[in-house]
Each structure stands twice: as C-alpha cells, then as structure tokens.
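DM from R.C. (forwarded with permission)

"hey, sorry to bug you on a friday — could you get me a structure for this? deadline for the figure draft is monday and I only need the backbone to look sensible"
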Amino acid sequence: MAVVAVVGRVGRVLRKLGHWVTQIPLVPPPPGATTSVHATLGPRILPLPAAGTVEQPALRLGVLSTEPLILEARDFITPAECNAVIEHAETEGRPMMGTAGCGMRKFELSPWPSQHVGADDSGLANTRALLLESIYDRIDRIVGVVRYGDEVPPKVHHYQHASNGVAPSTTAAPHHDRMPLGLHVDTNAVGTYCTAILYLTTLAQPIADGATVFPCVQTGVTAASPASGGSAMPACATPSSHPAEEAPRAARARHAGTSLLLDEALHTDQATTASQCHVDVLIHDANAGHGLSVDPEAGKLVVFFTREDDGTVDPTSFHGGAAVRFDPAHPTHVGKWMMQLCKEIPIRARGLAASAAFVSGRRAHALLHTRR
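My reply, with the result:
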C-alpha cells in the first residue's frame, strides 16, 4: 500500500510539472516595443476611468455568482468579430496538442499580435491583430491590470461535437458523460487569479450543450435529475447524502471542492484514491445539471475569479467544459469556439499578504463594472 501511495504522489507531481511546462508563456515583445515596459517591469495597475471619460462604450457586467465571483457581459464583441478571431487563430495562432478522443484543438495567440504582423501581411491580418489587442485591452480594464510578459498567453479552443457528425445511436440520457475532460481550478501553476472566457460561437440549448459548468455554485432551484435516473448520489461527503434542496446540495459540493484542494488536487484526475469520492460528488452534480451552466453564445464574455479575497484558491471555482453534442437541426455546425485569457498574480505580489491585497483589489475593481 505504501508503494502505491508513493507512485500515486509521484504521478501527480509529474502531471503538474507537465502542465506547468505546457503553460510557459511566449517570449515577451522585443525592447523598444510599446508594451515591452510591462514585460520587464511587471504589470501596470489601471484606475477605473471616471464616468463619461471612457473611449470605449461603457461596459456593464452582470453578476452570475458571488461564490465563486462570476461576471458576464453579453454582446462583448459582434458576430463578425467572433469570426475574425477564429480566422486569426487558424492562420496566425500556434497549434497546440489537442485531446485525443474529445475532438479538441488549441491555438496559442500572442499577447501583442500587432507586433507580429509583417510588412508583407495583408491589411486584413493587421485589422484582426488590432481587434485582438482591443479585446485584450477591454478585458484588462475589467480587472484593472495591463497584460505583461509573465502571463500565460491567450488561447483559442475549438471543440467539435462528440459524435463527429454522426447522429447518436443511443437513447441514453445525455448527461451521463457530460464532463469528459473532468473538472479543475485555473491556477496554471503560476498564480492565475482570474479567467476570461469569450465565446465565439453559439450552441443550441439544451441539445448541443458545451456549457461551462460550475457545480459548486448555489442557485435558486436544484436541477432535475437525468431522465433515466442516473447513478445514485455519492454518499461520502457531508452534509447530506440525498439533499432535497439546493443549499445543502451546494454545501456538499463545496465540501468536496475544499477536500480536493486539501489533497493538492487541482483537477479531478489528480485525486488520490481516498479523495475519489469527492470527485464523484462534483462530477455527479455537473452531469445532473446542478450548479451553474454558462451556455456558449457568440460574443458573450464571462470573467470568473479562481481566488478569494485572501488570495487563496477558491474551492467553489471548480469548473469544466461540457461535451459538445450533435445537433440534428444543425448537422454541419462548426462546434464550440472560445477564447481563454488567464490573468496572473505578478511575481512580486505572490507572498501571502501581497497576493491577498492584489487579488482583493482586482475583485473590487471588477465589481465596479457591475454598478456603472
């Protein structure tokens, strides 16, 4: 048993190391570039502009959840701009390794795309690069920190529907394998405190799914169980084995998230055998549609905080992407496209007190946009 425990821990360390290596940022802009000061001296904190002085149209965010803090802005960009971002990712992005069997592709983008447009590039390429920088700048304003060289580069994800164009032959409840990639918290091993997801395509609901799922969020009503009844509620966590109401259900899920973090599991596939029951709780709730599911809508921006005011990882921020399903009404649909930007705590602010002050300030800054 001791050997198994040691092997399991070594495996988890190797997985974390491998994940960290894949998140190494791009080389920052060369000296003399307009943004190179942020790569060398760290991020610049932005004050919230006074009312009436913002060059961009005033942005007002809606609050989807306070635990974790999740904010939403619909129509953040137009459908034409969504298509332009997709085209830029496919033509200028750096392809990354996908996930076998899940129909997923990833493209890494430059944080400063206009600096990579050459003299021989078309005017369209320059227009797309300027669009991306505008999107980055607007997200920077939400959290009040200009992007800098030590941050993980932006990525564009493409998820095709699981049936690969063939209509499903089974009538089983679609939620049984809703979360093929599991659930995780965004830390990226380098201090992520906030993630922005910009959806670039719309998926018809509920058939196509593809939602971003937060099973620990407490909502007003517990979702109905899958049509077939599904598996029994896992009975390894407190406070209740079969909660009839949303509050105890959410408390149980949060207990599971907290337990996984205490076990140093930032992803459900990193859990030890002893913590597998907590994984079962979260996956069960996500599969059953409990918590919050954010549906993909082209142009919609969602910003959520992985860390609490004290700078520690928020156990309620466990989330994952639901599988994209075949939609008979749209058999040739391109699937789910989305952009992801992770904001990082500056290296100089990663002590306990400094990170708490930094993260609490960014959360407060973002919340100001809900009252504008």
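R.C.: lifesaver. The chain is about 30% helix and 15% strand.
me: no worries. The mean pLDDT is 79.
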